[in-house]
Each structure stands twice: as structure tokens, then as C-alpha cells.
Amino acid sequence: MRRRRRSDAHPEEHDNHERWLVTYADMVTLLMVLFIVLFAMSQVDQKKFDALKAGLAAGFGQSTSIQDGSSSILEQPGEAVAQPIAPSQFAVDVKEVKTSAVSKAIATHEDLQAARKYADAKTEVDRLKALLERLNRALRAHHLEDDVQASIDTRGLVVSLVSRHVVFEPNLATLSARGQEVVDTLAPVLRDIPDPLQIDGHTNQVKVKPKYYPTDWELSAARAVTVLRHLNEVDQVPAVRMTASAFGHEKPLIDPAKPGSQRINKRVDIVVLSTLPSETRDLIAQVMQDQGAGGGLS
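The chain above was modelled as a monomer; its predicted structure follows.
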């Protein structure tokens, strides 16, 4: 039996010489679509273009007048050749929009920071007022409220030991018996808080040289140290939390021209120092003003 040839098993395929017509037809179709698109772009409905222009201008926050002035040059009403938007003009608009957005973001951030600082200052004022109320309750229990005046300023809570009932004898830095009682009454509250304390010594404005000290500075410093030592050695307030300062007669509590001012200006201030950042503490006066308290407290 004769073996079949390989050519018989796989008959030869004929080449299709008309496939180029498909490629040609595709190219012609694409060219036709291209020309249709170009023709459509060559004419613009003026009303629709104005609506699109207004929408884009509103989206970028610009005036709709940037394309004003174009008029129809065709016979058909409502149609006109669209004037191209200059790339440089568009770039300037985008830059202005970005700059405005950044400025608004920065302003918003600054507003939030200012609001946060004000809220922190208000919280601190409320805390210091609550502390003062604790001190006042202790003083009222011993009928010593007339020996103390208090205020809140950018330093914190200022508790002034005034001399209406002779806290200090003239020319002396020794606490009287009543002065010791006042300090002992304040001490338990001051001992329980973590805030640093600054003890400020003051003298009155009488232009007479102190009897036992070279100047008012030494006398006021001695009065501050006397109160500091009493708080530490008798009332067990930690010394690490306290500092002493002397101001002589330079910072009167009330106007020296007022009657009785000399007895009050001769004093020691116990300042409960706020630990807030300085830029936040600067807002304490504004908070006090907004609350109608000013700086002084009863």
C-alpha cells in the first residue's frame, strides 16, 4: 500500500491577497471621523460656550468677564468663532487660586492656634480662681480675709499679704503674730499644689531711710526671705518650689497718694506662678477682661 505524502495530509493554504482592503477601510474611516471632529470644533454655540465659560470661571473663583467682548461673525445668530483661552492667562489664574488657597489654609491654622491658646488661658484662669477660692475659704474660717488681697495677671495668682493688721512692724522684717497666722493659714493649700511660688518683698513709699537696713531693697528682701523661711521651716512647703525677690518701694499695690496706702504697700506677695507658655499667659489679661474681672479679685 502506497504511503500518503505529507502534502496530502496538510493541503497548502492559499494566501488572501485582499487583506489590505481592511486596513485601507479602517484608515479612511478614521480620517472621516477626524475631519468630522475638526469641523465640529471649528464652530461653537455662543450660548453654550458662555454657559461653559461662566461655569469654569465660577469654579476657579474668577470673574466671568475674562472672555467678554467676543461677538458673532457668522450669519447664523447664536454662533460665533470661539476665541482661544490664552495659556498664560490660565496659568496666572491657577497660580492666584493656589496662592489664595494657601493663604486661607494658613489663616485657618493661625485662627485655630489662637483659639487654642485662648482656651488654654481661660482654663488657667478658671484653675487659678478655684485655687483662690480654696485660699479664701481657709482665711474666712480664721477671720483673716481682710489681711489678703488677690489678683490674677500674666504671672499667675498674686496673693498679697497687706498690712492692715500689722503683718510687719515698721522698719522690721519680722512677721507679727497675726502675720504668722496668715501665712500658716495659706500654707496647707500652697503645699498641696505643684506650682512654683515666688515670694516678693515690698516696702512703702515713705522717703525715710530704714532704721536697721541700708536701703529699702535690703528691707524688702529680708521680708521676702522671712516669709519664704516660715513657709519652708514651719509649714513644710518644699524649698525647691520657692524663690525670693525684692522690689523696695518701686511697685506699690495702690496709689501712694491715697490715705492709708503706706500700710498696704508695705507687704509681701506670694505669687503662684503659671507654667503656661508665655504667649498663652499673655492672653490671661484678655480673658480676665472678657469675664469682667479685670485683674483684681475680691
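Residues 71-75 have pLDDT under 50 and may be disordered.
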